[in-house]
Amino acid sequence: MTRFHLPADGVYVGRIWSPEAGGPSVVTIRDGTVIDITSKMAPTVSDICEMDDPTGYVRTAPGASLGTLAEIASNRAGDMNSLHFLAPCDLQAVKACGVTFASSMVERVIEEQAAGDPSKALEIRARVGEAIGGSLRAIKAGSDEAAQVKAALIAEGLWSQYLEVGIGPDAEVFSKAQVLSSVGPGADVGLHPISKWNNPEPEIVLTVSSKGRIVGASLGNDVNLRDVEGRSALLLGKAKDNNASCAIGPMIRLFDSDFTLDDVRQAELDLTVTGEDGYVLKGHSSMKEISRDPAGLVAQTLGRHHQYPDGLVLFLGTLFAPTQDRDAPGEGFTHKLGDVVTIASPALGSLTNTVRFSTECPEWTFGVACFMRNLAARNLI
């Protein structure tokens, strides 16, 4: 199984599991070789992202070779006896923005109208899409024009809380996962067993310092339980934050003269889902169609109103909303166990994971306390 791919150019920082250390090590890639750059100066990825020049530090930091990228990338994720890649973030909070694209916003409205019942989705999609789908694409969230559309939709009885965060002044920002709980490339991703209608969400994930400076980006899968959230938006936590339900990777590509926030704004993401039964779903998300600028989403997340002392990673949302039928006509797409999900973008590489139940994925046991004890035992803090 191809667990991930990285472009040859770029400055990368990430993490691997080190059996020798009994914990994670901070690594970069140089000439196809994985280099351990863990040190007292920077024992965590969060420490590096807080530096004045993270890219310069990673380029020149002394380190030891651990093997080739191809060798380590082929090791099985979760095998505590072998080197394998982890999610590239560590102490950063894991936050996510929802309903940032017009097409996915319409799908959220459909979920709400269907109350989580996929059998009702086709009819509602036609009715809601005809009424509001095309009219929202060019609207800037929070603008006077958006306020006028909001008033018109309320008058038609079509207003929704998803449209509020989609075109209103305030973005939806939620906690996607707990610190250190995200899984990396090659790992299993988890669905809560109660869900019967769900999908992957291919997204770009920004890495942000505690001061609000965006220092890099990676790929992410914001695994989504459409039926759970569709029953009630108050179930968002249950729909989003479950064991192994957040995948990030393969590594953080740090910003430099060849890769900037403008490249993120222009990024194209491809999604492929391959089932054990031979089923294949292709999807796409274009950052050019996002309704809110990435820097604006960061500003709504972090500032004087809310601090993140160890920084954060921020999912930017997705244009992708699967409507292709997989089983029953009109019910659209839902995962089956064993689906292999690959998210790819030319500047960020690819991230591949396999779908299981959250109850069957390895339990998350290495939390902050374990991490601090491990670093202390290694004389890194």
Supply the key terms:
eleven-stranded mixed sheet; globular; alpha+beta; six-stranded mixed sheet; 381 residues; 28% strand; 25% helix
Uncertain runs: none
Q: Could you give the count of β-strands? A: 19
Give the overall shape.
Answer: globular
Helix fraction by DSSP (H/I, runs of at least 4) = 25-40%
Mean pLDDT: 92
Structural class: alpha+beta
Number of helices: 12
The radius of gyration computed from the alpha-carbon positions, rounded to a whole number of angstroms, is 20 Å
State the oligomer. Answer: single chain
Helix/strand layout:
Blueprint: E1 4-5, E2 11-18, E3 23-30, E4 33-36, H1 45-49, H2 54-60, E5 64-68, H3 69-73, E6 84-86, E7 93-98, H4 102-114, H5 121-133, H6 144-155, H7 161-167, E8 172-177, E9 188-191, E10 198-199, E11 202-208, E12 214-222, E13 224-225, H8 226-231, H9 236-240, E14 246-254, H10 261-265, E15 268-274, E16 280-286, H11 294-301, E17 312-315, E18 340-345, E19 349-357, H12 368-377
Parallel strand pairs: 7-17, 9-19
Antiparallel strand pairs: 1-19, 2-3, 2-6, 2-14, 3-4, 4-5, 7-8, 10-13, 11-12, 11-17, 12-14, 15-16, 15-18, 18-19
Helix pairs in contact: 4-5, 4-7
How would you describe what is shown here?
Helix 4 crosses helix 5. The chain starts with a strand and ends with a helix. The strands form 3 sheets. Strands 2, 3, 4, 5, 6, 7, 8, 11, 12, 14 and 17 form an 11-stranded mixed β-sheet that branches. Strands 1, 9, 15, 16, 18 and 19 form a 6-stranded mixed β-sheet that branches. A two-stranded antiparallel sheet has the order 10-13. 25% of the residues lie in helices and 28% in strands. The relative contact order is 0.19. The mean pLDDT is 92. It is globular. It contains 12 helices and 19 strands. The longest helix has 13 residues. It has 381 residues and is of the alpha+beta class.
